[in-house]
Amino acid sequence: MHPRSRTWSAALGALVLLAAAGCGSGGSGGSGGRLKMGISVANISLNFAHEMVLGAESAASHAGKVDFKAVGPPNTDGPAEAQLFQNLTAVAKDGIVLENLDPPIFTRPAARAVDQGIPIVALDTSPTDGSKVNFYVGNDNYALGELMAKEALKRLGANPKGQIVIGVPNPGTPVLDNRAKGISDTFKKEAPGVKVLGPFQTYSDPGQNYSSWSAQVNAHPDALAFLGVGDADSYNLAKIKKAEHGKWLTAGFDVDPKTLEAVKDGSNFVTIDPQHFLKGYLSTAMLIEAVRDKKGKLPDGWFLSPGGVVDSSNIDEIIARQKSAQAAYDWYKPTIDKLLGDEAANLKPLKDAR
Amino acid sequence: MTETERAVDDVERAREQGGGQGLLGPFRRRSTPFPRRWVRDEFGVLLVLGLLIAGIGIPYPDFLATNNLLSTAHNSVYISLMACGMVFALSMREVDLSVGGTYAMCLVVGALLVRDGTPPWLAVPVMLATGIVLGVFNALVTTLLALPSFIVTLGTLMLFRGVGLALADGKQITDLPLDDSFFTFAGGDPGGVPFALWVLLAVIVVLTVVLSRTRFGARVRAIGSNPDAAAFSGIPVVRTRVQALALSGLTTACAAALALAFYGAGDPTLGQGYELQAIAACIIGGTPLAGGRGSVVGAVAGAMILSVVASGLVFFEVPINWTSFATGGVILIAVAADSALRRTGRRRK
Known about the structure:
The complex is a heterodimer of chains A (354) and B (349). Helix content of chain A is 49%, strand content 18%. Chain A contains twelve helices and 13 strands. Chain A has helices at 3-23, 47-63, 78-91, 107-115, 141-156, 174-190, 206-219, 231-244, 257-264, 276-293, 315-321, 325-341, and strands at residues 35-40, 66-71, 95-99, 120-123, 135-138, 162-168, 194-201, 225-228, 249-253, 270-273, 301-304, 308-310, 347-348. In chain A, the strands form two sheets. A seven-stranded mixed beta sheet of chain A has the order 2-1-3-4-5-11-13, sandwiched between helices. In chain A, strand 8, helix 8 (231-244) and strand 9 (249-253) form a beta-alpha-beta unit. Chain A is globular. With 349 residues, chain B is mainly α. In chain B, 71% of the residues lie in helices and 0% in strands. Chain B has 15 helices and no strands. Chain B has helices at 3-17, 34-57, 66-75, 77-91, 99-115, 120-145, 149-167, 181-186, 195-213, 215-225, 227-232, 237-263, 274-284, 296-312, 323-348. In chain B, helix 4 (77-91) packs antiparallel against helix 12.
């Protein structure tokens, strides 16, 4: 065979194989009343997003006849997620759950999706004005920050004096900023002798996050506590505390396995669990219900999803919950049934979301 | 005749012709017919791009929907513009790793100006000027410290990003007047096509002509082909470096202005990793790290390949945790196919 023909054949053959790999599994949905839906998350590598995806996929599976697609970049990159979200609108025409850490840049893409008739539910980060998204499922993040501060104050004794350091992985993300504000305001109100430093940027990338917290610990070796509001903050603070034999309190958010281990061995005094699986489940279940039973009409407002404290008293139960999506569903089922049984009771005005 | 000899010959002929060149001197037709050379160099990467689109679109026709193709192309504009400027740097054996930081800083500068009351359209020239200044800074530091531009721009990548973060106080800059014509027109879709794509098209045309048909472009390629010979033959290496890196800063600032128009906010954390994507786009498109030649069209096609691969995986049933693996694999296949086509082309010469 002529060398040029071999080259052409190789190139074409590679593309045919690629297309064939897709043919086997693609393009088969959309028939027999099946819904095509999806979820877009900010970072598939981090636990919080993974939990939301599991919850969403669980809801889709229980609802039945839903082709559900999850997309997200491997590291926190707003424009990359915006691109994936826009591509998802070509596939998941029956509805999309949108979680992101950079809400302003999703204003236009979300508005365009709504204009195309695709129901969009905002998850974990409240939608911006102009996005045409009016339904949001999320925590009261300010209250979760208050919860962390109160747990810390329980362990610092009466009238503590000193400094605490607060870290935020992505400043400017409302969900994280509100947590930090909750921590800061609570300390200022209930422990006036404690100086609050920060919030400082700690980054969501685990490597950068570790470096950032190391620097903070070295800069404030006598601090009473280092408190982070993100996923990577939790386990990196625990790691640093163990490495430095620190006496300070450390804690963060979310239920990454390393974080749970840190709570179990006492390195972190607590982790605040925003219950991401639950949020992912609720948002997707309500989206499917709206499309199937209400002609795609979503409620207007903020559906308040609860969070909780994970400490030494319940750590084993939470570790067991995290073993599988089924175990998580079984643990959350009473809460899911209660919340979905009376949706209006948990619906608040969107403008109150924090 | 080698690339260096051809470039040096162009310079000598241009010098001999002296003042008789007139304004069109640098654009005088070269001896090699332009269209045939263009087709031969870029054909491979464009073919790979076409095959990728077909390979995804045939099993998944939704991928070929106009909205989807336009949004995929739109999302590649920012890397494409950075790659257009990077071609000049790579062609003369320089590297501009600072484009990610330049992008973020220009975005923040523009957003701050608009938030503080500057009419958005007037903020654009300030952003472009900022990009040029940053590029000139890179070139001057490279020259004065006699360091490789790779090292200098690695430092300025963090320097420029740090300035952007400091100016923005670490937060996104929002509350911009999104109903201004800058955001609705420059961030919108005039004629049904994103404005950013029109700008990219214009930049491709202009820079392709600059690289292949102007004295500046010839100098860039001559220096990259053989820096010593270029210097001995009187080509102003330092001035050319300044111009090339300034051009890289300018195209990056252009990307930042378009991003500001579309996203409607200034996020100082945007652009992380864009420098590597821009370099990858250039190399996929046929601009070698060894310098001496480059292709603006190829670089844009390379950026489009990266964007098409990322977008296309949404349509395949690739589990979310396997998308990075799949993206890397498809890129390797695309680059291998293009490389095989180029080798075939060279054997035919």
